[in-house]
């Protein structure tokens, strides 16, 4: 009996019955890990783009310090270049998406900025440095370029992670952690944990060292939410109203 003699409804029932088992047979842990990272990075990009709506509602972006947005763009751009150098399309894809999202955010940050001079100067210097780096990489052997960009990426990410040590010290001193939002910390920890597993799987030293350290420090911040209160006490709320 060929498939044409089976009614369409019956074919669909067979397909939907066998689809989950067939999918699990063809998928492995690495595929699921990559898919999960991709989904998480997608929502991370959307979270960055949500700043635009906030600035549009306010009518200006001057209340937000521009340096974190510049650093976010530099980080995603450098990891995209690194992915290209090591011919890893997965690193290229997720970081290329983040670079595009961060670029849109930077453009909006500039458009809604009332005092544009400082931001324009920093964007110009950043673009000039990025262009100079790309020009330099064309003159270097590929292996040298990989180590150079990988080292810069790792140092930048570890440096950003170390800034969270101040938050940890502050939380321990105050014995509360209500000054840090829980959701971004949990989201970043989840992503860093998965990327660390990914870096172990593909045996990438630079991904492992940078994301492993970031995951560890962010994990300590995450742990503090289960030790100290994440909301002001009733007494503190009352005092703030006086």
TrEMBL record:
Pfam families: MtN3_slv. The chain crosses the membrane at residues 29-52, 64-82, 94-112, 119-140, 146-172, 179-201, 207-228. GO terms for cellular component: endomembrane system; plasma membrane. It is a multi-pass membrane protein. It is found in: Cell membrane; Endomembrane system. The keyword Transcription does not apply. One of its GO terms (molecular function) is sugar transmembrane transporter activity. Keywords: Membrane, Repeat, Sugar transport, Transmembrane, Transmembrane helix, Transport. InterPro entries: SWEET, SWEET_rpt. Belongs to the SWEET sugar transporter family. Mediates sugar transport across membranes. This is Sugar transporter SWEET.
């Amino acid at each position: 009996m060929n498939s044409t003699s089976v009614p369409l409804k019956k074919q669909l029932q067979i397909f939907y019955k066998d689809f989950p088992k067939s999918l699990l047979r063809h998928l492995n842990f690495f595929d699921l890990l990559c898919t999960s990272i991709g989904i998480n990075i997608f929502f991370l990009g959307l979270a960055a783009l949500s700043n635009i709506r906030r600035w549009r509602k306010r009518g200006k972006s001057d209340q937000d310090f521009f340096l974190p947005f510049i650093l976010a763009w530099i980080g995603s751009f450098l990891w995209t270049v690194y992915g290209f150098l090591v011919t890893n399309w997965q690193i290229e894809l997720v970081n290329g998406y983040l670079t595009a999202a961060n670029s849109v955010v930077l453009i909006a940050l500039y458009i809604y900025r009332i005092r544009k001079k400082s931001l324009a100067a920093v964007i110009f210097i950043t673009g000039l440095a990025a262009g100079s780096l790309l020009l330099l990489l064309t003159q270097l052997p590929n292996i040298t370029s990989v180590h150079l960009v990988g080292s810069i990426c790792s140092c930048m990410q570890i440096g950003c992670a170390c800034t969270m040590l101040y938050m940890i010290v502050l939380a321990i001193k105050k014995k509360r952690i209500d000054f840090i939002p829980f959701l971004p910390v949990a989201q970043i920890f989840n992503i860093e944990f998965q990327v660390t597993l990914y870096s172990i799987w593909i045996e990438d030293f630079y991904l492992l060292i940078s994301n492993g350290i970031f995951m560890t420090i962010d994990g300590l911040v995450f742990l503090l939410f289960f030790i100290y209160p994440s909301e002001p006490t009733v007494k503190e709320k009352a005092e703030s109203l006086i």
